[in-house]
Amino acid sequence: MAKLPLEGVRVLDFTQVWAGPACTSILAALGAYVIKIEGMSRLDISHILLTAENQFTAELWNRGPYYHYRNPGKRGITLDLLHPDGINLVKRLVPACDVVIEAFSPRVMGNFGLTYEVLRELRPDLIMMSMSGYGQTGPYSDYGAYGMGLEPASGIASITGYADSGPTRTGVSFTDPIAGIAGAAAVLMALRHRDRTGEGQYIDMSQQETAIPFIGAALMEYQMTGRIPCPRGNRSSVAAPQGCYRCKGDDDWLVISISDDEEWASFCEAVGHAEWRDDERFATIIARNRNHDILDALIEDWTRGQDHIEAFHLLQKAGVKAAPVLNGKEMLLDPHLRERHYYDLLDHPTDLGPRPVARTLIARFDRMDPKPDRAAPSMGEHNAEVLQGLAGVSDEELADLEARQIIGTAPILDIPPDADLMELLAQLLFPLDRMIEQGSIRAVEPDYRRQLGLDEGAHTGK
Amino acid sequence: MPDPALSDLRVIEVAQGIAGPYCGKLLASYGADVIKVEPPGAGDLSRRFGPFPEDIPHLEKSGTFLHLNTSKRSVTLDITGETGRLAFRRLLQNADILIENCAPGQMAQWGLGYDDLKADLPRLIYVSISPFGQTGPYRDYKGNSLTAMATSGVMYVTGAPDREPLTTGGEPAEYLAGMYAWLGALAALAYRDRENAGQQVDVSLMEAAASADEYSAAMYAFMGAIRRRYYSRHLFSYPSDIYACKDGHVVVSPAAQGFPSPTATDQGASPMSLLLGDVELDQNDLFRDRWARWFRWQEFERLLQPYLESNSADEIVSFAQALRMPFAHVFNAAQLLENEHLRERGFFQEIDHPQAGRLKYTGDLFKADRMKAPLRRAPLLGEHNEEILGGELGYTKKDLEVLRGQGVI
């Protein structure tokens, strides 16, 4: 494959958890040299949100699955940003960088003394992007914000939910990936602008605003009819029947969406109920919509006896839009995603070995293959490479910074004096048995490495 | 105003519906000249999606169409026939980017696949959007936002544990795919700016939606655990969910990873106990142990309920934010359009349309003074036929008359 378009571009990345790291992992996949900066006492919490194998071993902070999903392809350095020497090192790095990205609430970079005004003195054509929850201006700009709140604040939750429930969150922080894509696109355009004019610029992104266009039709409906759109389950205004139907198995489901009479006829044929096609209650899309509840019951009578994956292929081969509701395991094993290399096997440090990690830039290209060339960095893994290579730090200075804990390779945890360390760490583990009992985890499969084919490779663990 | 970022580019959008047009809209927002090629008579599919003023269908008044096609020009051209295809190929001569969303293989059947064009147009960036992508065993399967959300891992974790999985409202996978198509086109453009070569960009709705999977695949790949829906709750920090309050709904989200401890405030009490007006609660297990909360959430809700019932969303959010807890509003379409924060940021922009009238449209995805282009209304069907086919491609008035007569435009 030819070279990647962002080779030679350096990005200083202050972001954590999802939206910002999603943006910078896309830039890394395109060849940028992305430097992830963390504080040892302000580490990216995704290091410890989940723990591989749900077990503590040495360096547990380097074993966070979620962290590994969001940070492949980057370099990792640690800097104490609460110490003037840490800030000074940032200022020594900036002249060597093209882009600075941060996703704090607006006051934080100012508190560090690292505003755009300050940084562009060090690098006049710098591109800086702030991707806070609500943007840099306006009455909510100082609000703390995470995806759990931003999705409802963007309006998406107001049209998500069962028809008889109130607004509902998507089961993920849905604005994060949206802001991540928008952020990467903004940087690509700003780099192009710089190539053409020599000018850098400042980008003020509000994560809330990046998601509001997703409900464009609802915004128009209110303006055009006065109605405020509300949740309607899995139904649609342009397809009927449309829904999610129970299949054979513990918790297996199939979605079906039929948008015209021809597709309806194919469906009736495929499920062995040609008589439904001739039933006047279901003859047109308007009739099917009116009798949707009756239809749902009939359809579920059929799906209940079906395997969700087999029914998917059966209906698709008949020309009907259908899909199984896949869980995490089924996605990793899905033959289509496998053939398209949606998950890349990245060899991880410590004892994790190779693991499937999802693509960060969702597109395939003829002339390039933008995927991470390395697993997410261990904490502080590239302190020497980055600080010596780009900030001119000497061997002695590096040793001194380490000795004074301005840089390091392990977190400094702020533990209350009367706390029991083991008890605090135990809270990081998942009580999986109780979660299965409760229903928030479907199962835990001890042989998952074998099922994923991870035990067959060269790696045998250290 | 400085030159917008993409003002040297011409985009031909032959895609219909949501994903492709959203990609085109975003390119147009930053200055590209986007020419929308629509089937004569019927126009883009989304012209029939609605919503419509007074619920009366009208090709020029669909809210979905108007929203997705701002700042573009429209020509009509029947590319299923030979004459239309000829004109289409002439249009592509000056194009930098083509956006299409036909079933994989369909464009090739018309002689318009990437392989048919790349010899003549080596710098063309050819963006293809489809339900499952251009390769792989499902490539010929049909799909939409719902099927993509189903196969994304997201739907399995959305909804109540004893009910069916829920999709997310609107057509989110279509929008995500549109954004990835935009990003993919920009990445291919960055490649072309350096290497002087175009290429095909293949975006699938299934994978676009899968990129929103938060924990499911990682949990299985590293732990063997299969996550399932549990009231769409965040996995690490119950609450962090939507609750009813006195005048609507509110997101209760004390912090990213749970409750801030009593040391987080000057008063030596946790922000949650201060919010609820009872610092004794800091001694309660439900306040000290996130797993206690996660399993005994009904008890926690009983503690929360009286406060929520007696306060408005505005009061709750501003008080919690003053205590540094990231509570949030749950806005509906009407509340967003009237929201003071968005108004102060100038997010919505009002534009007039000769048939649909004055409406508020969503603005730029981010504020960057050196890149933005002015927002223009969506085009009428074939509004720019003469300007583009006549003026730019050199068809005479008579030619256009003939083409119109044949139903090609």
Description:
Chain A is 37% helix and 13% strand. Chain A has 462 residues and is an alpha/beta fold. In chain A, strand 2, helix 2 and strand 3 form a beta-alpha-beta unit. Residues 458-462 of chain A have low confidence and may be disordered. Chain B is an alpha/beta fold and 409 residues long. In chain B, helix 1 (19-29) packs across helix 7. Chain B starts with 9 loop residues before the first strand and ends with a helix. Helix content of chain B is 36%, strand content 13%. Classes of the chains: A alpha/beta (462), B alpha/beta (409).
State the helix count of chain A.
Answer: 21
Rg for CA atoms of chain A: 25 Å
Side by side, the strands of the main sheet of chain A go: 3-2-1-4-5-6
Shape of chain A: globular
**Largest beta sheet: strand ordering of chain B:** 3-2-1-4-5-6
**Can you count the helices of chain B?**
18
Low-confidence stretches of chain A: 458-462
The portion of residues assigned to helices of chain A is: 25-40%
Strand content of chain B: 5-15%
Q: Tell me the structural class of chain A.
A: alpha/beta
User: Share of helix among residues of chain B?
Assistant: 25-40%
Radius of gyration of chain B: 26 Å
For the largest beta-sheet of chain B, the strand count, sense and barrel status come to: 6 strands, parallel
Number of E-type strands of chain A: 13
Largest sheet of chain A: 6 strands, parallel
Shape label of chain B? elongated
* Count of extended strands of chain B: 12
Interface with most residues:
A-B, 180 and 162 residues
